[in-house]
Amino acid sequence: MKYQVWVLKEIIKRNRGGFGIYFLFLFSISIMHFLSSSFFNLQNLEALLGVFSFSEASYFELSWCLFQLFFLLYVTYLFYFYEIEHSPEFIFLRVNTLSLILKKFVLFSLFVLFFRILVYLIVFIIFKHYSFFTLTLFLKSVSLPLFIVLVFFLFSIFRFLFYQVQKGEKS
Questions:
Q1: Helix (H) or strand (E) holding 54
Q2: Residue 11, helix vs strand vs coil
Q3: pLDDT tens per residue, the chain (171 residues)?
Q4: CA–CA dist 47, 141 (Å, integer)
Q5: Cα atoms found within 13 Å of the Cα of residue 34, Cβ hemisphere only
Q6: Comparing C-alpha atoms, which of 95, 50, 101 is closest to residue 79?
Q7: Is 62 helix (H, G, I), strand (E, B) or coil?
């Protein structure tokens, strides 16, 4: 598990510009809503938290939601397939593949959960005078990112198994 934590730190360190853009975009859209609108409704809050509702979203909210989605997919891909791209010998020589994938799933799910809590707290601090911060809203903002992590977990099982079968046939 220490190695997976190191991999996660390495990915965060290498992509700190992306995380910086993420928080800059979050602050920009938050301030835009805070200063420019005379009213702030639940849809605006959901868009800030990354709850995807494309029905009445503005261009900035749509851009923000798509940025969050693609950034999460990118970081998830980097984390799950780090060993295949950087050290494939680690997979074959040191660990059980299913154990590796399970550790990655648990660690990255916790990371996504803490990251979403951080985003929720930032938005809550900026808009603390509004009363619609609820547990339901938090769960809605966490459900899609955790679902994406789960899909990548299942996808990575198939990819690692395919990679091992492919490498086994060439040897």
A1: none
A2: helix
A3: 787 888 889 888 998 998 888 888 888 877 776 676 655 666 777 777 777 766 666 777 778 888 888 898 899 888 887 877 777 666 666 667 778 788 888 999 999 999 988 888 888 887 777 656 778 888 888 888 889 889 888 887 887 777 666 666 544
A4: 9
A5: 15
A6: 101
A7: helix
Angle among Cα 164, 169, 171 to the nearest 5 degrees reads 95
Amino acid at 92: F
What is the maximal distance between C-alpha atoms in the chain? 67
Spell out a b/e string for 50-87, using b for 16 or more CB atoms within 10 Å of the CB, else e: bbbeeeebeeebeebbebbeebbeebbebbbbbbeeee
